[in-house]
Amino acid sequence: MTKYIPVAVGGLSLLMAAGLAFPALAQVGGAAVTIENCGRTLEFDEAPERIVSIGQGTTEILLSLGLADRIAGTATWVSDLPGELAEAGANLPRIAENTPGFEAVVGTRPDMVAVQWINDIGPEQGRVGTFAQFEDFGIPVYVSPAECAKSEFGAASGDGARSEAWSSDLLYREVAELADIGGVPSEGEALIADSREREAAAARDAEALAAEEISVVYWFSSPEIDGEAWLAGGYGAPQWISNVIGLRNVVDSHEEWPLVGWETIADHDPDVIVLGTMKRRNQPADNVALKREFLETDPLTSQMTAVHDGRLVELDAHAMNPTLRAIDGVARLAEAISALGLTR
What we know:
By secondary structure, this protein is α/β, with parallel strands linked by helices. The protein has 12 helices and 15 strands. Strands 10, 11, 12, 13, 14 and 15 form a 6-stranded mixed beta sheet that branches. A 4-stranded parallel beta sheet has the order 5-4-6-9. It has a 3-stranded antiparallel beta sheet with strand order 1-3-2, with helices on one face. Mean pLDDT is 89; it is low at 1-30. It comes from Roseivivax sediminis.
């Protein structure tokens, strides 16, 4: 049985993080696990057996924890699974490639829903439903701490906004909490230790680049290929990648993915443009080939230094989200920057 205990808070403050330290968790292995999550207290008397994960980042964490046999359904896919998870996730049931319907999720009879984006399931509204709607069916909803830490969310703010920058500490908190909920705390500890080691190695390699003077923008996608673009703001995962490598993101915004016009970007004339690659095709600019074609043929963008000098770097779009792949994104982008010959 799972209990949901609401915490009375006002306005958007219920989404503010209590800090980056892991919250106190009840003992696992027979006893209840208690999680503070987005202004609510979730109590699990036993590990869930039928988990629906909405968001590929969350799905990949569950797979990395060895919980493939507990996943009753998945949704919101961006790319193929990485090689190390391909076998474990080969037969995962997919409710939807993109956003699923409420009835479709409930129809899988889950005993927990784990969601990557609070815009999908939130306190007052969501593309799939609300906390209360799932609570009516006795289904607890766990939301990624990276989303709980946002100061604002909604379509009008480009996937939300942050008053404090995202860091890998929020990612490791999610890993630890999902591991405890799933009754596999040792697997969580091992995954965190391995991820921290990879992060430290990538940071050491990036430090040698001396890339402080290199400016960059990250283009995820666009609602229109020749219109405003969803570019990474200054407080999300791409900014964290930039900080580790030493790059300067020219988009200074608290929004996660603000819509920015190319006239504004041309004025900043970044040294490098990072293009998100993905298998998803629900926005016109999801296709990286179309991104390139626009940049190279548009009268304005074709004259930008990054385009004119061939400094268009492709990066897994999933690595631009606050996921385990963001750690790999550091190493891959650093390698690409080095190959361009812009560093010492």
